[in-house]
Amino acid sequence: xxxxxxxxxxxxxxxPLQLRRINRDTGFTAYWDILxxxxxxxxxxADPLLIEDESCEVGYEEFVYFLxxxxxxxxxxxxxxxxxxxxxxxxxxxxxxxxxxxxxxDQAPLELDVGRLRLYLFNxxxxxxVAFEVFGYDIPLEQAVELLDRFxxxxxxxxxSASRGAHCxxxxxxxxxxxxxxxxxxxxxxxRYQGLVRDARQTPLATHWEFLLQPLVPNYKxxxxxxxxxIENKRIPxxxxxSFDEPRDLTRGDMIRIGSAAKWGPSxxxxxxxxxxxxxxxxxxxxxxxxxxxxDIGMNTRYIFAGLSFAMITKYSDDRRDLKRHFRxxxxxxxxxxxxxxxxxxxxSNRFSRAVERLDVYNVESVKDFKRNVRQALEVFLRFNHRxxxxxxxxxxxASDFFLKWRQELGTDHIYREVRExxxxxxxxxxxxxxxxxxxxxxRLTVVSACGMVxxxxxxxxxxxIFSYADQSQWxxxxxxxxxxxxxxxxxxxxxxxxxxxxxxxxxMASENLSWRDxxxxxxxxxxxxxxxxxxxxxxxxxxxxx
Length: 547
Description:
Elements: E1 5-19, H1 31-37, E2 43-44, H2 57-65, H3 68-75, E3 88-92, E4 98-102, E5 110-122, E6 127-140, H4 141-150, E7 158-161, E8 164-166, E9 171-175, E10 181-184, H5 190-200, H6 207-213, E11 217-218, E12 227-230, E13 238-244, H7 252-260, H8 280-284, E14 285-286, E15 302-306, E16 309-315, H9 321-328, H10 330-357, H11 364-387, H12 397-410, H13 412-462, H14 474-497, H15 499-510, H16 516-525, H17 538-546
Parallel strand pairs: 11-12, 13-16
Antiparallel strand pairs: 1-6, 1-12, 1-13, 2-3, 3-5, 4-5, 4-9, 5-6, 7-8, 9-10, 14-15, 15-16
Helix pairs in contact: 9-10, 10-11, 10-12, 10-13, 11-13, 13-15, 15-16
């Protein structure tokens, strides 16, 4: 239906970004402290509850929608009932009032208003989430679908020609309230994108997205205190709200394209194979308030969860403004939490894997850095489990259902299990290494004690005043003391150095399955370690396995 019009169109991008850990030389320990000192166009939000309006009308509906521990996460509520230590820090910018989007070079550009532009930073977790909402009215369905598919592209995934990227808009411009262009895209600059991948081995961003995040700087650029890089590539996760005069006029193909943010095609066709979409309505659609046959009972709203996309399709009505308000506030917060969970888990996984990649077991400093980094990561993951990881967020049935379906589509539970296994494996490695060191230290002390026992008995036996030095001068006593102290110390140190080899000899002596020849050979290996062959006799192996 090419003539179908979207009466109201809202698109919210929820863009998770990985932040590079702050360099200690900067003197800062938190990203938000850096941003407060040099905010650029961003402004710190003093109270998340009153971010929309001081009357708290919108904040009230959001607040009571969630369970208490989610309220603490979203609004920083303390035990005294007032704002306390916040789990997340919010910044907003108001300089970008509109965007101009050219979907195709042969089409006139669309102008959309900017509804919200926020940056979320989180305690303990090295990620940021950018929320960017645009909206418009009376947009042709084809253009609305193309916006869903193309606008949230941080870079061209491929090229249609030497100067045109594929699967992205032809051009995007950010405008201020007076219509002045603040930044524009460069999707057609193929040489720049290919050069960044070739030289920096990192995913590039279009220039308008780089502008949006300033003073944050992409990791492939020099300068900047807060560096970031992408967690998920190709497209930015999104939420969409589309209202129609009659949503039942949409075909199945239209519904699937909207819900999946898929490429536009004729309404009587499907974007994917029929067999692939056989379970779409059952798996991806939430039809609690949708009746495809009857329009007189008020069931006019369908929700679709499909991968990184969430869509709300409903009937336009001046009497039901609460539907859009629910989309922009409680549902938006549910989506924010779901995408935060996934981004945080991917960040932990990346942190663990990078630590293991950098581990060089033959380098003492590398081992120390590895242990320090993973212990810090394990502590942060523990706090994440208790502070941020929610299974239930609301006693509202719809909110619980939404959160569950969002997690299923994002694969959050599966990622969580994988990260927990990674954390368990690393923790097991640290425990085993600690136990190995303790056993090694115990073995060395045992050997030194056993070797020193002979000297202790002998000196104790001979210490019965056989030799009397009481009448000697002070200098003679000092000389006798050092004559005994120095060789004894050297002997103790030498015993520690040879403790592992002496331990092997003592173990061989304790074995009843080795011949005396093998035992004397083991004794000789204490002194021939430099030429020692890395082998153990079969009899000693048998004895060791049997002991």
